[in-house]
Design brief:
Helices cover 44% and strands 9% of the residues. The protein is built from 5 helices and 3 strands, in the order H-H-H-E-E-E-H-H. Helix 2 packs antiparallel against helix 4. The chain is globular and about 35 Å long.
Length: 113
């Protein structure tokens, strides 16, 4: 476990991940945010910085201005399990069930909400 940013982060087992998504993450927003990080290996700040133009043709584009080191742009395929979680989030947004992810124009909420 990391303490004050030092040490090795814990690797979750398949059962722990299942429990996290079914019992721990209470909203579609939280599941979508964590799933983007889980399936793409990005950091939370990178997931929160996604914009409408970063999502197209089944891929997510993490612009170099938002990645650690700001060295290059990364393009990651959207896996079917991630697509399902994002669709659940989009449906919840359409019903007004969850709060806005990010209120900036052109952000992920513009695509999935």
């Amino acid at each position: 476990m990391k303490v004050r940013g030092n040490g090795q982060g814990k690797v979750l087992t398949a059962d722990e991940l299942r429990r996290l998504f079914t019992d721990g993450l209470n909203s579609p927003r939280d599941r979508a945010l964590f799933a983007i990080c889980l399936f793409t290996g990005c950091r939370v700040s990178e997931a929160l910085a996604l914009q409408t133009t970063d999502i197209k043709s089944g891929t997510l584009t993490f612009r170099k201005s938002t990645t650690k080191g700001k060295l290059k742009t990364r393009v990651v395929d959207i896996q079917p399990a991630l697509a399902a979680i994002l669709a659940e989030y989009q449906l919840a947004q359409a019903r007004g069930v969850v709060s806005i992810w990010s209120q900036g124009k052109g952000t992920l909420d513009s695509v999935y909400g």
